[in-house]
Amino acid sequence: MTDVCLMFEVHQPFRLNRNFHSDLLFKEKLTTKDLFDLYFDNGLNRYVFERAARKCYLPANQIILEQINKTKSTGKPFKVTYGISGVFLEQCQLWSPRLIESFKQLAETGCVEFMEETYYHSLASLYGDDRSEFVEQVKMHRQLMKELFGYEPTFIENTELLYNNAIAKTMEQLGYKGTVTEGIDKTLRGRSPNYVYKAKDSDFRVLLRNYRLSDDIGFRFSSTGWNEYPLDATKYARWLAGTQGQVIVVFVDYETFGEHHWPEGGIHEFLRALPDEVNKWHHLNWRTPSEVIKQHTPVGEVDIHEYSTVSWADIERDASAWIGNPIQNICYDSLKELELLVKGIGDKDLVRLWRYLQLSDHLYYLSIKGGGPGDVHNYFSSMGSPVEAFAVYSRILSDLEARIRLELEKPELAAKRLLRRLPAGMGFTFSYEFARSSGLTVRSLNEFYSALKMIDVSAILFHMERGDFERWLSQVVGDELLADQIATVNSLNRKLKGEALRKKVLGIVERRLAQLNKITASESRTLKRKKK
Asked: For the whole model, what pTM was predicted?
């Protein structure tokens, strides 16, 4: 028996405003709602969404609902799986509430599974040692699915099927049972994608997309030059029946059914006929991914190092569709660098605006690849050339960064930012003479102060003579004042040694901490009075 797992990616981005100009920066204060309206082309976004809903989402949902109801009594019910991004559901709420009701109807059949996603369809899984932003976006999506559908997914897909060992480990730690990624030859090393695998050194299950059978529908269905054109459900079911393995994962963009392939080309008729044609083969069964990983024992491991991340995009099937050239990397790095700054402000609306700019689509439009992949990138882009898309995206990122930095100049926010705990990799590690590590790493001013009190004084002398403290305080923590005060100890008190040196440095850090804590405490009292 072979299971057929039909999975759909459902996503629409908020496209950027091609006419945005940053001359608004120094005008009167704008709300985040104002900024959203300036950064994004809401007229275009609504037009594209409503067109896709009319041509694809609503009719495809209706066809699938009809086929589920029709096949339920046969003992081989039609089953499908959706991965729906949070920003797509936001657009449903804005412009097509009945589409949400349509998905609810599908959920009520018991034959539909919803996968977890990153809320913002972002590349957050690729950065941060602890992947905290990725975790936050997954949890946001989980909450949204619970609120809208009363559904808590147990199976997860990452944005564009991005996958490596570290991502799999994070997904497993979040409590999910399995995921899906691309079944590419370099990963499989001669094995078939049509089996259940598990992540490296784990029991976390991994399903692999059969890209040939998936792309026959997703890319080649309307290609009159294809030697199998026209493709009908009978022929396709025969191909599935002739494919050996535990499970065949057919994973396509949902826009395949009416938007990428227009209804006039017969794509809706294909979808309508497929369940019955597959059910004619006694050894084929429709399954959801959660059912598949319960049904079958893994036959091996999928081992993909972080530097070999895979996806389902382009010929390379790696991360180069989004971070494969210099202009993409510039914008990607800008996004990452803004994380600490925007989260340090504590303004949820501003963080949400930054997250809208994380949509992978914005980076996808910056690709300069040629040939077939280049044609696909250009098909999806509304921004003109990659250079034009870069000009718009970089202007908006620069504008947001400037606004964030203006906010951070406020004394209370500056103090809060300086007292923050730094992410892993940005801490200060104490060492002794000849750079022998003490094994002690601190990631905040408070931890720095505590370490100064207990570390062997020879380590303090070692770092003071090298100027290490002042560099870390200035370049990483961002406290120029404290860095200058520590530097002064070096220049004016070079004879200080031993406990006298420790006492001097401790006194400077203690006074600075008291000053920063006083500023933040005053701001907290002000906020409490405003709430009352």
From this structure: 0.83
